[in-house]
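Long-time lurker, first post. I've been practising inverse folding by hand and with some scripts of my own, and I keep getting stuck on stretches where the structure tokens seem ambiguous. Below is the full token string for one chain I'm working on. Before anyone asks, I'm not after the true native sequence, just a reasonable design that respects the backbone. If someone could post their per-position residues I'd love to compare against what I wrote down in my notebook.
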């Protein structure tokens, strides 16, 4: 059963995107709209969401909805899914993009922040996925996109907590994909490297990380386009830029060299 292939044509399909007020989530919303989807954008910043939703309507010529959502609150997640399904119709595409990071040594890390990061990056994603996938399962159709990170595969100094959350997303997504395949639901895990977005306004205390890793920095619009193109396919992972996929394989084959490169070449925080 491969009903997710029906979603190669996104016209009039309902797509819900979390973390859509800025960055990659915002750009994914626009790419979905360009393909004619009815886009529901969710985040905490309602004023910004309204702007994104209006732009989606302009791009798609269709309805768009902006819903305030704190992904750390499971009751809000359940209500958002119920509202979309009752007021708009069946959710066919879910993009879990909401998340945040902070670059700091593990021994100095505020554990209250660590708990919040797991609540947002991991548990929020899991709640949203479960509530939405239960609806998709009844229809035997759907596509789920979980935005993890290359940090979940290649950890570097000062990324211990963030890498742990993204490794959890990877593990969850890998098992979920196997469970949902028979229900006509695809699961794609996106593992981007650094993207030129507001993410680093919080994550990078030095203010120079993107500048230091300029060779590997991704453009959010181009990244979003590649993500949306995978919807309706059986692709299991999207690793960007490609050099990090090669690096991950090399890391597995030669761990000591991988550690050396992670401590030196990629340690720019």
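-- Answer (accepted) --
I ran through it position by position. Result:
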């Amino acid at each position: 059963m491969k009903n997710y292939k029906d979603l190669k044509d996104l016209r009039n399909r309902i797509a819900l995107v979390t973390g859509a007020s800025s960055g990659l989530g915002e750009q994914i919303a626009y790419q979905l709209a360009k393909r004619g989807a009815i886009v529901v954008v969710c985040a905490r910043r309602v004023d910004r969401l309204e702007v994104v939703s209006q732009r989606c309507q302009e791009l798609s010529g269709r309805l768009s909805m902006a819903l305030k959502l704190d992904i750390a609150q499971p009751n809000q997640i359940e209500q958002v899914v119920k509202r979309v399904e009752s007021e708009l119709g069946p959710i066919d595409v879910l993009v879990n993009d909401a998340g945040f990071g902070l670059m700091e040594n593990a021994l100095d890390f505020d554990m209250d922040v660590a708990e919040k990061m797991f609540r947002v990056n991991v548990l929020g994603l899991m709640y949203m996925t479960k509530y939405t996938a239960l609806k998709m399962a009844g229809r035997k159709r759907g596509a789920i996109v979980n935005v993890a990170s290359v940090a979940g595969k290649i950890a570097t100094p000062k990324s211990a907590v963030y890498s742990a959350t993204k490794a959890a997303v990877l593990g969850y997504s890998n098992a979920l994909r196997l469970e949902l395949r028979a229900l006509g639901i695809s699961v794609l895990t996106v593992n981007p490297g650094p993207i030129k977005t507001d993410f680093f306004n919080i994550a990078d205390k030095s203010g120079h990380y993107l500048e230091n890793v300029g060779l590997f920095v991704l453009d959010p619009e181009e990244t979003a386009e590649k993500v949306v193109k995978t919807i309706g396919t059986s692709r299991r992972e999207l690793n960007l830029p490609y050099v990090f996929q090669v690096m991950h394989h090399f890391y597995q084959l030669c761990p000591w060299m991988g550690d050396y490169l992670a401590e030196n070449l990629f340690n720019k925080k």
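A couple of notes from the structure itself: The first helix runs from residue 23 to 34. The chain has one domain: 3-264. Happy to go over any region you disagree with.
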